[in-house]
Design brief:
The chain is mainly alpha-helical and 372 residues long. Helices cover 70% and strands 3% of the residues. The protein has one domain: ABC transporter involved in vitamin B12 uptake, BtuC, CATH 1.10.3470. Strands 1-2 form a two-stranded antiparallel ribbon. Strands 3-6 form a two-stranded antiparallel ribbon. Strands 4-5 form a two-stranded antiparallel ribbon. Strand 1 and strand 2 form a beta hairpin. The two termini are 45 Å apart.
Length: 372
């Protein structure tokens, strides 16, 4: 005799199905990272309130959020997006900061029509679009060289790009006249890239009277590049080849993938995006400075591993990196508003990198145990 019949509410099932689809789309790791970011924001708020720190009251303002995204996140975010492609394939590009410096100097040189190597005048005067393309081209060439060294000379990617880090830093100084910054402050079209805002004259009731300052052009550029690279990595043959190579390069080669060509391509993508980051650095600082991209590679690499990439390759997403970049930017911004100096921020960043790699290694070991 049946005493109980299990019944299901159709609306409840539909809600659960929708929730599962959302979680599957975002990814469990990314959802965890997002929740960790929420906790970080909450902790910064609590600490600022508990100790009565004046900077904490500015943390949740719309203006600070937009400034944080534009100033503290965009450049590192672009570098990290390009770095993700390399790390997913099982490589590492340590040279992205120096490549950004080269892109910065080249863009500024093209824009204002200066730039010499000895007595040779190598850069013609160009407009803003030409300057942007020149900076990205410089980065792409740097990436091509990295790719050739790794694939044709069979040098380990970490060692090859470590050498490139020093080499491209030197090239940036050689391209700048006497190694000095090249000012572009008189080029309004160029500096608009960093200082311009979109949709400024809008009334937003949800802000409850807070001033709407618009969306920085820098933020729009980062979101656009992130979406494009997400599509490339998730929906194209090239993206699938990147994951295959990172998972097992030998198996990928046996499956018919031209591993060398894909690796060269991934370094060129990383380099061109780093070149774009350098262009935006020149626009933001109003100068093409040979040290513009110095030390940015550490933040970019930290964001990639924090975003769920594996140290052995084959795992990681552009969206995960994007969330991690926001988290790193929030940490830096929060520490700055709470009065921590630069040295304390570097300590926090270093510890975060170690933690991110440790978590990646732990996940990898757990996955290997599960397969056995």
């Amino acid at each position: 005799m049946i005493t109980h019949v299990q019944t299901y509410d159709k609306n409840s099932l539909e809600k659960k199905g929708f929730l599962n689809r959302v979680i599957n789309f975002i990814g469990t790791d990314n959802l965890t990272l997002f929740l960790a970011w929420i906790v970080l924001v909450f902790l910064i708020s609590v600490v600022s309130t508990w100790f009565g720190l004046s900077g904490g009251s500015k943390f949740f303002t719309w203006q600070n959020l937009m400034n944080s995204l534009a100033q503290a996140v965009v450049i590192v975010g672009l570098l990290a997006v390009g770095e993700t492609v390399v790390i997913v394939a099982g490589g590492l590009d340590i040279s992205v900061g120096s490549v950004a410096s080269c892109g910065s100097v080249v863009a500024a040189s093209v824009l204002v029509g200066i730039g010499t190597v000895g007595s040779l005048h190598i850069f013609p005067t160009g407009n803003t679009l030409v300057a942007i393309l020149a900076g990205m081209l410089a980065g792409m060439i740097a990436g091509l060289l990295n790719g050739l060294v790794v694939t044709k000379l069979h040098v380990n990617a970490t060692i090859a790009t470590l050498g490139a880090l020093a080499a491209f830093a030197g090239i940036a100084f050689l391209l700048a006249p006497d190694g000095k910054p090249i000012g572009v402050v008189t080029q309004p079209g160029f500096t608009w890239l960093a200082q311009g805002r979109l949709l400024q004259n809008m009334s937003i009731p949800a802000l409850n009277g807070s001033k709407w300052t618009g969306i920085p052009v820098l933020t729009v550029i980062l979101v656009f590049v992130t979406i494009i690279m997400h599509i490339v990595m998730r929906y194209t043959d090239f993206g699938r080849a990147i994951y295959a190579i990172g998972g097992n390069a030998t198996a990928a080669r046996l499956a018919g993938i031209n591993v060398s060509r894909v690796k060269i391509g991934m370094f060129m993508i990383s380099g061109s995006i780093a070149g774009l980051a350098g262009v935006l650095l020149a626009a933001r600082t109003t100068s093409g400075n040979p040290i513009n991209g110095q030390n940015l590679e550490l933040q970019a690499i930290t964001a990639v591993y924090l975003g769920g990439a594996s140290t052995s390759g084959g795992k990681g997403t552009i969206f995960g990196t994007f969330l991690a970049v926001i988290m790193v930017g929030t940490l830096n911004n929060g520490m700055n508003l709470l009065g921590f100096n630069t040295f304390a921020q570097k300590v926090a960043l270093g510890l975060l990198l170690i933690a991110a790699v440790a978590i990646s290694q732990f996940r990898q070991s757990q996955a290997e145990k599960a397969r056995k």
